[in-house]
Amino acid sequence: MIPVTKPFIPPLAEYNKYLKGIWKRSWLTNNGPLVNELEIRLKENLGVPYCLYVGNGTIALQMAIKALKLEGEIITTPFSYVATTSSIVWEGCKPVFADIHPKTLNIDPSKIEALITPKTSAILATHCFGNPCAIDEIELLAKKHGLKVIYDAAHCFGTTYKGKSVFHYGDISTTSFHATKLFHSVEGGAVFTTDHGLFEKLGYLRNFGHDGPEKFNGVGINGKNSEFHAAMGLVNLRHVDQIKKRRKDQYSYYLNKLSGSSVQFIQLEDEVGFNYAYFPVIFKSEKVALEVKRVLEINQIFPRRYFYPSLSKLDYVSGNTPISDDISSRILCLPVYHELTVEEQDLVCRFVLNTLN
Ligand SMILES: *Cc1c(COP(=O)(O)O)cnc(C)c1O
Description:
The protein is an alpha/beta fold and 357 residues long. It contains ten helices and twelve strands. It is 39% helix and 14% strand.
């Protein structure tokens, strides 16, 4: 069986070492020493000034929306994981969908301005598949119209833009360390900002608003994560360079094998240091995509329709995004994960190419 992804599993002995410490301290959660250490290591690894480790990538988005006090309408992408849209709705705001660029699959900045109304408070864009959005254009638009910017950077561990971690950009960037992501801590996520005031605000939000045991600084939520999760993050962080290297090799291998066929690949933005986290393939039609999926599945290979449906089609929102709808219908992510072998990649490619011919 070849799934679309498999979590990276580090050597057990490395995790056990951390468990011993947790047992000794009996400090299991509430911003313990391993959570602190993970935040320090992440800041070093990514070169970012502020980072808060949180329970998951969805609470990270919700905290970002709260911290920026967003209300009314948020312009967002229809081509992402459902959490990007559902977080906006969960926070009582209205998602307004700007269609995507057909080659990068990111929100098309030229479609944003026409959607701005007096009710618009922010732009929430996903760096889809780890490919950064048109950051410069989005920043210009946001400045011009006084909007906040949040980036859902859940796919972006290790991605750089203009030589800096992509987590640097926007008022707040969020990410996920879910087990399916390139770097994971089983469950987990983080919020990043370069603004000290926002960082402090996010710290209160993460911990029920606690400002000491008996004092509160505003409404908060439980956005914390545990020592056990932080330990997994610390162990996996030691392997992340190796994970990234392997992903890059696997990406090049697929690219090489499948180019020359009728499939289309995503176009990377300029000045990107890519993390090769996913391998999306766009087919000529939905019919072809579904046929490839069917053939792979009978051979025990399980690609996924990332991302389907296009989010403006969810029944609790509305929007008109024909490009996203079209791409969603005919895209598949092929298997990529650390243990995937060249032989397995060959097998995947053979079924894909045979179906196309
Ligand atoms: C995975 C993902 C999320 C959600 O992260 P969780 O940690 O699972 O809550 C949000 N946005 C995108 C784009 C994702 O891929």
